[in-house]
Amino acid sequence: MKIAYLCILIAVLLPYVWVTIAKASGKRYDNRDPRGWLGKQTDAKALRANAAQLNAFEALPGFIAAVFMAQFAQVNVMHITLCAVAFIVFRILHGVFYIGNKHQLRSLVWFGGLICVLILMGSAIVKIV
Q: For residue 129, what pLDDT is reported?
């Protein structure tokens, strides 16, 4: 479970990677009003990096719940680990493709991450029933 827990930590930190890129991509960053500053950006890369940040935060609850559901249901640890690692790979690629404006690839890897979450939740449900 150590690797799956490490994946949760990585997933928690990922949005901060994308927002750092957003802040570095736009005009001079204003820390007095970070949300307002991000909202005023016109640089496409900064806007996409901010959107990647928001999407990464949105993906967190489902992933964390899925890992804990699978652990609680005593799903095979290797199964949990593989799904968690795959989720992280998909989420990293999602941010890279989002920032790089590769919308079709971004959508594909977003779906891959969702499938990982659904597999973990489904495995927990099947194991308990």
A: 67
Q: Give yes or no for a contact between 38 and 51, defined as CB atoms under 8 angstroms apart.
A: no
Reported as a single tens digit per residue, the pLDDT across 75-85 is 999 999 999 99
Query: What is the number of structural domains in the chain?
Result: 1
> Which CATH number goes with the domain that contains 119?
1.20.120.550
> Can you list the residues of the chain whose pLDDT is less than 70?
26, 129
Sign of CA dihedral 97, 103, 91, 43: positive
Domain that holds residue 57: 2-128
pTM: 0.93
CA-CA distance, 27 to 40, in Å (whole number)? 10
Residues 6+ apart with CB under 8 A from 124: 66, 69, 70, 72, 73, 75
